[in-house]
Amino acid sequence: MADELGKLHDATLLAIHFDWSSRTCTLTLSGGPELPGDFIASLQDVSMLSATAVRPWGESVSILGAAEVSAGRFEFAMQSGDTITVVAPNISFQRTR
C-alpha cells in the first residue's frame, strides 16, 4: 500500500466516487511515470471525506503526492494546490487496465 501511495506523483485523477450507504470511496486514476496503467484506489469504512477544489496553483488534474499522514488518514495533494483527505482504516489498489 505505501508503495503505491509513494508512486502516485504525476498520476491523473479521473474521478472520485463516494458510496454513502457502503461508506466506500473510490478514486479512479490513470498512472504516472512510476505507476503506469489505469487503476482504482478503494477505501472502505470511510468516516470522513474532504476535497477542496479552489485551484490556488492553477488548473491541474495531476497528483503531486500522496501519503498516509497518520494512522488511517490518507491525503492526496493535487498539483492544483488542492487536497483530498480520506479517513479510513486502509486503502487498496486494483489495476483496471
Description of the structure:
It is a single chain. With 97 residues, this protein is mainly beta. It has one domain (2-95). Helices cover 5% and strands 51% of the residues. It has a four-stranded antiparallel β-sheet with strand order 1-2-3-8, with no helix packed on it. A four-stranded antiparallel β-sheet has the order 4-7-6-5. The longest helix has 5 residues, at 2-6. The protein is globular, with a radius of gyration of 12 Å. The model has no long low-confidence stretch (mean pLDDT 95).
Strand sequence of the main sheet, in spatial order? 1-2-3-8
Contiguous helical run count? 1
Name the structural class: mainly beta
Bin the strand percentage.
Answer: over 45%
Our Rg estimate from Cα atoms comes to 12 Å
Spans of at least 5 consecutive residues whose pLDDT stays below 50 are: none
* Whole-number total of structural domains: 1
Helix content: under 10%
Terminal CA distance:
19 Å
What shape does the CA trace take? globular
* Average residue pLDDT: 95
Number of strands: 8
Helix and strand element order: HEEEEEEEE
Largest sheet: 4 strands, antiparallel
